[in-house]
Automatic annotation (TrEMBL), chain A:
One MF annotation (Gene Ontology) recorded for this entry: ATP hydrolysis activity
Organism: Paenibacillus albidus
Domain ABC transporter intervals: 5-230
CDD domains: ABC_DR_subfamily_A (cd03230)
Keywords from the UniProt entry: ATP-binding, Nucleotide-binding, Transport
SMART domains assigned: AAA
Domain of life: Bacteria
Signal sequence, renumbered to the chain: none
Any Pfam family hit: ABC_tran
Descriptive protein name: ABC transporter ATP-binding protein
From TrEMBL, chain B:
Residues spanning the membrane: 12-31, 37-58, 79-103, 115-136, 143-163, 183-207
Protein name per Swiss-Prot or TrEMBL: ABC-2 transporter permease
Keyword Transmembrane: yes
Pfam families: ABC2_membrane_5 (PF13346)
Species of origin: Paenibacillus albidus
Length: 289, 211
């Protein structure tokens, strides 16, 4: 299986934030969801991929080649959707499109027109007059109009209404039918991932928590609900995160086999949702409700 | 088309509206026709500042970086774009001057030489402006823009006054005789060195800058 993106011990630090020795890869032909709480490093990671910011250490490879600023050819094969509008907002959609088109070797005017129609975007409308969702649609139309092999999207579903959100996810699922195409998108919304992602990359505080196939997560994690008397110093150590209430506790165990062996007969054992995995991992075992 | 040329095309798309604003300015210049060629460097400078400001206004540099072009081409295109901007300023000033002549305004014999020199001042100003633009980005752009606009406006007026107060400067500009060839070659070389040095500084600033 080919790897379309590889991070190899990538580090980047700011005043109060650090990406530490990130090493993982994104598989070709799949949809990979990048999740994590605010400030986990998702946008930093995507901006590093696009060459907007630079890693202090480590190497990033895209399509098997280092993403060197001197060799920007790989961007011809990437469709990028930013979480904020970065187009010239005093221009119209038509002007912006005309400006962008010559930069991409695979630009297809007909495809672009089709997407603009599909997203109901008037070519004569100025970017600044578009709503946040419309700007996102325009960004998406541009990203899809030059035959990109890799779509990199930062929070593409943010600001979209539920109807279009669903349509977008269907569209992305359709895009991936060509097995040579890959998608990496960051999101807070685990429902989006449940719907379309094949792989999940989970970042927390600049560190990689896991990079797993979505289907394999239920085999690894276990959600345990029970009385507080079950918690002692030893058992607490098994939990990635615990939420204690007046009536009992619920906690996430990252070793399902061991968790089931101990808790199966004395507590309620469930398969956690992606949101629960994220919640307990981020909060750790210090939460008391 | 080469990426740098596409980027210059991009700059012209961006400043298209601003170009329209220059029409009344030039009409006013033609109407006044009073040493107006001195102002040949002001509109190009405003065009350069305008295109640079629009590039950083809403993190638009991130958009440029997302395109399949390298940072070196982004920097180079800003320097190359000074040429069409300068030619535009030069061309329109000449047209307006000719229009003034046809309307019966008096001719200035050394017009071509002076306008040439004044036009050449613009890239020199740009050579100081662009490294600051790439260094400060959005944060300091407004202050730098105001300073350079003032330099362009006051500098133009000052040049006009200098020529008026010190006629030998004007005579020197007119007297481009062969015995001054070496001087002009050294001047030209220094001019190119400043431009190239400025480009290298901008490149060094921008090539590894986080946006």
């Amino acid at each position: 299986m080919n790897e379309v993106i590889q991070f190899n011990q990538v580090c980047k630090s700011y005043d109060r934030f650090e990406l530490k020795d990130l090493t993982f890869s994104i598989k070709e032909g799949y949809i990979t969801g990048l999740i994590g709480p605010n400030g986990a490093g998702k946008t930093t990671l995507i901006q590093m991929l696009m060459g907007m910011i630079f890693a202090e250490r480590g190497e990033i490879r895209i399509f098997g080649r280092p993403n060197s600023p001197d060799d920007p050819g790989f961007k011809d094969r990437i469709g990028y959707v930013s979480d904020e509008n970065y187009f010239y907002d005093h221009l119209t959609i038509k002007q912006m499109k005309r400006m962008i088109a010559p930069f991409f070797s695979g630009w297809d005017e007909e495809v672009c027109r089709k997407y603009l129609e599909l997203f109901r975007l008037s070519p004569d409308k100025k970017i600044k007059d578009l709503s946040k969702g419309m700007k996102m649609k325009f960004s998406l139309a541009i990203a899809l109009s030059h035959g990109a092999e890799l779509l990199i999207m930062d929070e593409p579903t943010a600001g979209l209404d539920p109807v279009f959100r669903r349509e977008l996810l269907d569209l992305l699922s359709g895009h991936i039918l060509d097995e040579k195409k890959s998608i990496l998108f960051s999101t807070h919304n685990t429902t989006d991932l449940d719907r379309i992602a094949d792989y999940i990359v989970f970042l927390n505080e600049g560190k990689l928590v896991f990079n797993e196939m979505k289907e394999s997560l239920p085999e690894k994690y276990l959600l345990v609900k029970g009385g507080k008397e079950l918690l002692d110093r030893d058992t607490r150590g098994w939990f990635t995160g615990i939420r204690e209430t007046a009536h009992g506790f619920e906690g996430l165990v990252s070793n399902r086999t061991e968790g089931e062996r101990y808790f199966k007969d004395i507590a309620l054992c469930e398969t956690p949702t992606l949101e629960e995995i994220m919640y307990f991992t981020v909060k750790g075992n210090t939460i008391h409700a | 088309m080469y990426p740098s040329l596409q980027l210059i095309r991009k700059d012209f798309i961006l400043v298209r509206k601003f170009l329209l604003l220059l029409i009344p300015y030039y009409i006013w210049m033609a109407f006044m026709n009073d040493g107006t060629f001195i102002f040949a460097s002001l509109p190009p400078m405003l065009l350069l500042i305008n295109s640079c400001t629009l590039d950083v206004q809403h993190m638009n540099q991130r958009f440029l970086i997302s395109l399949p072009i390298c940072r070196q081409q982004l920097v180079a295109s800003k320097y190359i774009s000074m040429l069409p901007f300068a030619l535009l300023g030069f061309g329109i000033t000449v047209i307006m001057y000719m229009a003034g002549l046809s309307l019966g305004h008096p001719s200035v014999p050394h017009f071509w030489k002076e306008i040439g020199l004044v036009t050449a001042v613009f890239p020199l100003l740009g050579a100081f402006y662009l490294p600051l633009f790439f260094w400060l980005g959005q944060k300091g752009a407004q202050i730098v823009n105001i300073i350079f606009m003032l330099i362009a406006i006051l500098g133009s007026s000052l040049s006009a006054k200098l020529l008026e107060w010190f006629p030998f400067l004007s005579e020197w500009a007119v007297d481009l005789s062969s015995n001054q060839t070496v001087l002009y070659m050294i001047g030209g070389l220094a001019y190119l060195c400043i431009l190239f040095g400025s480009y290298l500084i901008s490149l060094r600033i921008f090539i590894r800058k986080d946006l």
